[in-house]
Target: Type III pantothenate kinase
Amino acid sequence: MYLLLDIGNSRTKAVIYENGKFTLLSDLNLQSIAPYRFIAVYVACVGFDEHVEQLQHTLGLTHLPWYRLVSQTAAFGVVNRYATPERLGVDRWLAILGADSLLQTKNLMIVDAGTALTIDWLDKSQQHQGGWIIPGLRLQQEAVIKNTARVGSTPDDSQELILGVNTQDCVKNGALAALCGAIRAGWQLKPTDVIFLTGGDSPKLAQYLSDLPVQLDPLLIFRGIARYIAT
Ligand SMILES: Nc1ncnc2c1ncn2[C@@H]1O[C@H](COP(=O)(O)OP(=O)(O)O)[C@@H](O)[C@H]1O
Ligand SMILES: CC(C)(COP(=O)(O)O)[C@@H](O)C(=O)NCCC(=O)O
Ligand SMILES: [K+]
Model:
């Protein structure tokens, strides 16, 4: 039994992994992991490194091996297109590997709607084509609010894809439009057989993309991590 951690810039997500089965933990703390006996911890971290050390202590798991995953030039037949492959965010690399584990020989878009929204393209011969990094739903709003004199709203999670008639609604709904628009622009530029959607804002975005071949999967990064665990 393994503990898998995805440490993003907003939150840490945790999964219990055993015999090919993934169980997402809704909370990560001493109590929530108390019933489990882990062999090792596998970590994907795009946040600050100190966060990993902190977690080792707060979870009382300093006695276990902690394996930190890194983006590679190639693995499991998947080829990373970055000129400096280790610079590709490890969450992106693992989501690509996770999508590849579900669907090979298809052209894929892999969208991770987290703090930032990332889009990566993987072609049917497992070649990563590159991608985009776009401010996420909250950052879109903060960018406008922090850099203008008269947009005095607060970031808000209750977006709808409708027109706003006050500042608050214009900012929050505009942020949703920006992300839907980015995914649609990606699709127009380079359409694929499937668009995998993962990350905190993926269920919301999926509602507005039902005409595209979207497949929601909260586990993509964890599926990628699991490929590194020899069974
Ligand atoms: N419980 C939650 N805490 C924080 N963000 C949440 C939560 N539930 C949904 N979200 C949404 O998820 C987004 C962050 O997604 P997530 O995949 O956790 O990001 P990251 O991987 O960058 O930490 C936020 O923009 C927010 O809108
Ligand atoms: C783009 C990211 C900030 C996304 O992180 P997240 O929103 O999931 O917290 C992360 O993948 C990262 O730090 N990447 C390194 C730069 C790159 O991928 O080119
Ligand atoms: K992420």
User: Anything to note?
Assistant: The chain is about 30% helix and 25% strand. Residues 167-189 form the longest helix (23 residues). The chain has a mean pLDDT of 97. The longest strand covers residues 128-135.
